[in-house]
Amino acid sequence: MPAFLIRLLTALWMLASWTSASTAATTTTEAVTTPPANRVVALTPHITELVYAAGGGDKLIATVSSSDYPPAAKKLPRIGDGLSVNAESLLALQPDLVIAWHEKSAAQALAPTLQKLSIPLHYIEPRRLVDIPLAISQLGVLMGTQTVAKAKALALNNELTQLEQRYAKATPVSVFIEVGTAPLYTIGNDPLLNDTLRICGGINVYQDSMLAAPLISTEDVLARQPDVVIVGSRNQAQLATRQHAWKQLTLKAATTDHIYGLDPDALFRPGPRMLEAAKTLCTYLDSARLSMQ
């Protein structure tokens, strides 16, 4: 199983656990940083991307192993893999702000120590697309980069509004999101990705699942007959392989050429690139929608 898939499935499992236990706001702060933070640690790849988008790239002093975007992030020191963090290495860097996904993420074990040392811990847990520009704005306040952050957040909000208006009355299209192939996984009741589909006029055929990332069978996909299949693929060769596999199984979405590929990092990381992935997703669904008329 690819490393990115292992990280994604683990993250989705943790998100499902946290979501079932809480209906709190998408972004919370354990402590307030005054003056603005200048030594920031990001504990997930999407938070790294959000910090850069908010104008705080030069304030980042460390991140996790899978943080690879933007390219400048590759040069940052690594203090863990996103699921576990080396507390000693983190504290040695003397951060004045640590940013985590949610309370059941890598920050869970760190939180008591950070609290004792009065190191602010901030959580960012987008559950809707609109939460992404909101998080950027809040990061701007924490890091004193409001000018850059507000401009970026405004631009993303405008793009999101345009998408919602464009597809508000679109005919619904049923969608299967293929996350992994061996074994076969999909997106289930994940609120963020289902919100993305909703904006595009899509309906996840597995949104009724009890899990955020359920293990499924090809037979079950064939029984549900989605109009569109979205594959997490990094290149055309990967996409072509999946298109061929589903055509062999005579899935209607494959025989009608309604299988599309999206960069899994852009689609599954709740950061600024997810808005770009959403625009592409909407275009794909609209193309399939028009061909079915």
Description:
With 293 residues, the chain is an alpha/beta fold. It has two domains: 22-164, Rossmann fold (3-Layer(aba) Sandwich), CATH 3.40.50.1980; 169-291, Nitrogenase molybdenum iron protein domain (Rossmann fold, 3-Layer(aba) Sandwich). Helices cover 46% and strands 14% of the residues. It has helices at residues 3-21, 45-53, 87-92, 107-116, 131-143, 146-167, 191-199, 218-224, 236-248, 252-255, 264-268, 273-291, and strands at residues 27-29, 40-42, 60-62, 97-100, 121-124, 173-181, 184-186, 202-204, 228-232, 259-262. The strands form two sheets. It has a five-stranded mixed sheet, with helices on both faces. Strands 6, 7, 8, 9 and 10 form a five-stranded mixed sheet that branches. Residues 13-31 have low confidence and may be disordered.
**Proportion in helices:** 40-55%
Low-confidence stretches: 13-31
Q: What is the H level of CATH, i.e. the homologous superfamily of the largest domain?
A: Nitrogenase molybdenum iron protein domain
- CA-based gyration radius: 19 Å
Number of domain units: 2
CATH topology of the largest domain: Rossmann fold
Mean model confidence by pLDDT = 89
Relative strand content: 5-15%
Enumerate how many helices there are, as a single number.
Answer: 12
Structural class assignment: alpha/beta
Strand order of the largest sheet: 1-5-4-2-3
Number of strands: 10
Task: Summarize the helices and strands and which ones pair or pack.
Blueprint: H1 3-21, E1 27-29, E2 40-42, H2 45-53, E3 60-62, H3 87-92, E4 97-100, H4 107-116, E5 121-124, H5 131-143, H6 146-167, E6 173-181, E7 184-186, H7 191-199, E8 202-204, H8 218-224, E9 228-232, H9 236-248, H10 252-255, E10 259-262, H11 264-268, H12 273-291
Parallel strand pairs: 2-3, 2-4, 4-5, 6-8, 6-9, 9-10
Antiparallel strand pairs: 1-5, 6-7
Helix pairs in contact: 5-6
